[in-house]
């Protein structure tokens, strides 16, 4: 990603019952005041900086179990 741009990281999690979806950064916190997760579980990172680079993990959990996927952001 280019510094200063907006990045969207998708997370496709479906099930019945619908799973609870959470995003976190593997080593650190999500950028305070510069992120949101929409209804489709997409993580939006605004005005990214070099400090935002790293691994982001989407975790989906329901009574049937837990699944996780990791994506890497390079700035």
TrEMBL record:
GO molecular function, one term: cell-cell adhesion mediator activity
Record-linked SMART domains: IGc2 (SM00408)
Main location: membrane
Location(s), subcellular: Cell membrane
Alphabetized UniProt keyword annotations: Cell membrane, Disulfide bond, Glycoprotein, Immunoglobulin domain, Membrane, Repeat
InterPro entries: Ig-like_dom, Ig-like_dom_sf, Ig-like_fold, Ig_I-set, Ig_sub2
Record domain Ig-like: where: 1-75
Membrane-spanning intervals of the chain: none
Gene Ontology process terms (BP): axon guidance; dendrite self-avoidance; homophilic cell adhesion via plasma membrane adhesion molecules
This protein's GO CC annotations: axon; plasma membrane
Protein name in the entry: ROBO1 protein
UniProt source species: Drymodes brunneopygia
Upper taxonomic lineage: Eukaryota, Metazoa, Chordata, Craniata, Vertebrata
Chain's gene name: Robo1_0
